[in-house]
Known about the structure:
CATH architecture of the domain at 5-167 and 219-275 and 283-289: Alpha-Beta Barrel
CATH class of the domain at 5-167 and 219-275 and 283-289: Alpha Beta
Number of strands: 34
Shape: globular
Strand content: 25-35%
Structural class: alpha/beta
Distance between the termini: 63 Å
CATH topology of the domain at 5-167 and 219-275 and 283-289: TIM Barrel
Strand order of the largest sheet: 1-2-3-4-5-6-7-11
CATH superfamily of the domain at 5-167 and 219-275 and 283-289: Copper homeostasis (CutC) domain
Number of helices: 13
Amino acid sequence: MIRQRPIELLAPARNIDCGMAAVDHGADAVYIGASKYGARASAGNSVEDISRLVEYAHVYGVKVYVTINTILRDDELADTERLVWELYRVGVDALIVQDMALLNLNLPPIPLHASTQMDNSSVEKVKFLQQQGFSQVVLARELSLDEIKDIHCNCEVPLEVFVHGALCVSYSGQCYVSQYCFGRSANRGECAQFCRLKFDMVDNEGRTIVKGKHLLSLKDMNRSEDLERLLDAGVSSLKIEGRLKDVAYVKNVTAFYRKRLDAIFKRRPEYRKASSGTSTLKFTPQLDKSFNRGFTRYFLEGRTSDIFSFTTPKSFGEEVGVVKEIRGNYIVVAGIKSFANGDGLCFVDAKGSLQGFRVNKVDANKIYPVEMPKIQLRTRLFRNYDKSFDDILARPSAIRKLSVVWTVTEYTEGFSLEIRDEDDVMVCKSFPVKKEIARTSQTENIKVQLGKLGNTPFESSNVIVKFSENWFIPSSLLSEWRRIMVERLLSARKVNYQRQVRMLPTPFTNKLDERHGKQRNGYVPETLTYLANVMNREAEMFYKKHGAIQIAPAFEKNMPVGAILMFCKHCLRYSMGWCPKYGSEKSSFKEPFFLVASDGRRFRLAFDCKNCQMKIYADDIQ
Length: 622
């Protein structure tokens, strides 16, 4: 028998409606923010709402993870501890965390997942987190397929990777520019999206290299063509970004990846989905119809030139054709897409800026805008709002059902019913009743009545009737028995649902550090800089216990002079064609280069070619 590895499709939930939609459209797990302490401060949810989502999700074996992935102040630790206990009591399956202080708190035995905010980008880091008892590790987005495989081969903890959605230009957890410029910490869930702003790029002599472009804005990740290779590299959880996205986005993207994974599982029996039930869709998912800035596979195969979106940080949507003719009040489009009144279209104008307009009327390939845009012939058109598609997603667009088999048998005093679901959860009950012989065959009516599962989570795949005689059972009685059995099966599924418990840290295996008389694990250095994001006493105690001696406070507590504000795999020298390793040209501009924001603030660029990184400093730091 082939040993199957469960594969988790992990979908985002801004709120309970998004969470339930993710379940309906095929997610194996959902991640959602708590009322506070999540890396998306504007996407918080009450414990009561999370409890309702847990109850709904667990029917299908879908897990619910809650993000508490900010760094915490000392005065927030007690409140965080209380919140974690509340979440545990309502059945949350795991917490996604960043602050190591949580490992020192009095927590329930709830599993902990290491957030990508921890910058999990090396074998050593993932091994360390595994030793600390983390049940799952979310890897840095910048890793290549070979790097992911290397981590899997050298570690035992399940690995989670992002496969779709918006990209941060800086390594997650290592971006401090929002705090520096606006007093809003990305590590505290308040990122001001500095990377989506316009900049000029100038050289050391003040010469303009690029004018007014979104030079730090990346396209959105799309690894839908690489899922099988990610699974073969050892990934167990495939994550969709989007805790700020609306319910239509969650429906469309979750359903798309569900279909892709199911197709893989049919060919690859060593993999299986991590939850139960089958989602039936009322639409055809299409990724480019949801918010996107264009797509990139983002370093999965190493460095490529398709990762950035300098024109705009806004959504392009799907390409729909080119402008063939321009008449007085309408545009003729050359393309094969159909349009609808109310569609939103956009294009890049002659100045390189994104412009948009709303469609008022459509006549075949003639589009009548609400206001005629300034547009040129042969301009490429994109649709970033599809009215017809959005209308479909605004209604119930999927239904998820668990398959069940009924068995009806007789005994001396009446009848027995058994209902068994696809997970082999079963309930059986005897119903004493006076038996009567029917004049006509009853088998078909019994199948029809027991198959009427309506708004329940179940659908009947078979009804087996084992009678020695053609017994008569009134439809009203069958209906009542069906209701009782469904209620009992739901209760049984709830009882049978198995929550994982938090893994215990493994004992130290390293030798005693004789110089300081402390155990060392080989990962935590003696000196920790602001990059460790130590905001509170408990986190400081954690690292000291593991061998750290000097620990700098988090950037949010004390902005260190000369600090790097952003660490980026995206490199502007590479994007200009001037990379010493990949480029074919040599720049005539004099380094260092600077980014100049619209308010006049300047940021110096430094290029770390050994580590293939671009670093960003404030210009007042030399």
